[in-house]
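Following up on my earlier thread - several people asked me to post the actual chain instead of describing it. Fair enough. Here it is, all 558 residues.
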Amino acid sequence: LRKWRTANTVFSERCTCSEITERCLHPLRSTESRKDWQSYNPPDMEIVYVYTKKRSEFGRQPVFSDVAAEVNCDLQPEDSLRKDFIDKNPVDMAIQYAPEMSEHEVNTERYETESRGMNHTEGGWPKDINPAEVEQTIRFRKKVEKDEYYISVIQKLGDGMEHYLKQNTAIDIYEEYFSDSASTKVMDETPSAKTINILRDPQEAKRSVTHISWYPDGAHRLAAAYSLLEFQKSPEGMPLEAYIWEIENPNKPEQTLKPSSTMLCLEYNPKDPHLLVGGCYNGQLALFDTRKGAQPLEVTPVEISHKDPVHKLIFPSSKTGSDVFSTSTDGQVMWWDIRKLVEPVETLPLEFAGYMPGLRMGGITLEYESTMPTKFMVGTEQGVILSCNRKAKTPQEKIVAAFTGHHGPIYALQRNPFYPKQFLSVGDWTARVWSEDAKESPIMWTKYNRTYLTDGCWSPTRPAVFFTSSMSGTLDVWDILFKQTSPALTVQVSDESLHSVRCHDQGRLVACGSHSGDITLLELSSTLSSVQPNEKQNINTLFERETRREKILEGRRR
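Reply from S.P.:
Thanks for posting it. Predicted structure:
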């Protein structure tokens, strides 16, 4: 059987043995273009010879050449179809060479944890031995000591214990070798802040976080007051509770406070951290003791309390730590003694003859500095800052000066912790830095924000840094030594507006309260929380220079 193959077809034919022999001996005589041979197969054995050769290596090679173009078909335009189309010249088409992707968000269920205590009792004794019986335990010890393996085991354990004791006495692993040397570390880190926890209001009804107060002895706990700022839209059954949170446990408040009315502010007593005082919507002040439950210990009588909601209260420095004073939009500042909240110790109406005589201004915020024990300041809803002296004899003399410049209520007012003559105010769309020596205008101010500012405070560790919160949900961190035209850092804390911000005394943690009842805890970078080299001297020079400039401008205006 003989087979041969062309380009696309395989042919076969039968031939005799003589033909096979002749063609095997003279293969070039054959007319096939492809030489694939199979030899004759005897009955008892099979012999196959295969010859392979590429098609490109034999036969005639194709030859290509350039040929002039020719028209094979010509379609003429039809005028009847031209009316169905509109000419568009030029034609632009955008093509995006990128895979199409979709974005999805998934909220997993919160994993709630709970801390529980455990009492450890002595164990390891046999069942028939009572650990409380001294005689039984002594008898059992003597029995164990007489065991033949007891001495060998104690010797093996004793050698290892002796080795570790000698090692501990030889090396002090807690020793600080360069504790006395001054730090020369340069703060070149980029300003940043990261979210470390979010404390959510457990109530279903949405309430705003109107005030935050840090625990005086450490940064592990804070108290928060919740209220619905749109008082006319308050639904029936609105929850009244305020909470004390452990910042490491965001699942559940550590303690609940239950006032008789919604609280707008809540402050820890710096002398006794177990005591808190809250200012209520109905004008009352409520005193709480965390050791004695959720209900208030004492509440001021309604008839002698404020007539409007209490927006701010402060504990001034005193020997007993029992003094507190509050302000409200009813136009009064009241001093109280928390040991006897039957009546106010003193009352001051917010009327200043030098600014619209006869007008009683509503108080929104208070400021007190312990280094100036007789002075305090009040921020009003008319946009005026009143500087007061408590030791004056008459109410008219107690209001010393007024600082005007804001276009709306002043929501935050605080003196610089390093230079008390300079203070910060936050209201309308700006934050302003004032000096007591220049009363007609602020010495510094921020540019107008796109949304309303709601709160602000100084950094307790850096004299040039302050914080502002806005209705857009952003927290702006200003470093006026680094940049005065824009914030050094802007953090989008929430999609809803922020209503309160408070920085811890160590300067590292900042708590922001939102409109939906969430408290976001932020940790600042070292550049925003640690004092920079020569910062105090530079900021003092800046304040003095701006104060002199404002005095010169005041003299020219006169």
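The longest strand covers residues 193-200. That should answer part of your original question.
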